[in-house]
Amino acid sequence: MESSTRAAFDLGRVRDAVVPVLASHGVVLVDLEWVTERAGWTLRITIEREGAADVAGGVTLEDCADVSRDVSSVLDVEDLIAHHYNLEVSSPGLDRRLRTAAEFARFRGRTAKVKLSRPAPDGQRLLRGELLEAPEGQVAVLVDGKRIEVPLTDVVEARLVFELTSQPKPRKGQRQGKEAAKGPGPAKRLAEAAPERSERGSEKRK
Length: 206
Known about the structure:
Elements: H1 3-6, H2 11-24, E1 27-37, E2 40-49, H3 61-78, E3 85-90, H4 101-106, E4 111-116, E5 126-132, E6 138-143, E7 146-151, E8 155-160, H5 178-182, H6 186-193, E9 199-204
Parallel strand pairs: 2-3
Antiparallel strand pairs: 1-2, 3-9, 4-5, 4-8, 5-6, 6-7
Helix pairs in contact: 2-3
């Protein structure tokens, strides 16, 4: 990111302007990013519903659309960004990023993929396994039955890993009951319980 572009506006002021809008919709800010992509500059806002139990944040496509509309209006009025940019509002998704100690603690017991800036005690730079309880300032992962503990400051990137639960195949000659045959499949049940990452972009010109 060019320093001139980075210094062109205060991302902290944008955050201060956005948070009250999110609160009015009953959602909270998970992440706020200013990134460059092939289509140009993008302000990416990730939200979840306050108190949501599911990893995807409990927000719908309609939530993202409503928040995007109102945030766009506020940023227009405040005139905090002088650049032509795209606005994206989305849920964290099933592969949500983990950044803080609180997030690692919140999703303890889930499977995660953790990239490190330097090798762990066993030499690995990429840990994949179950998140465990860890001392303050540390991240612990159960990898192939072995507990590996690293400083949180060594974590370059961490994401939850979504794994489909395999369904046992019926034995030969065994028929599924009518209830099971009419019920939604695993993918549909998943969509109802935790919607996939959804986005709505709105372009702003200056």
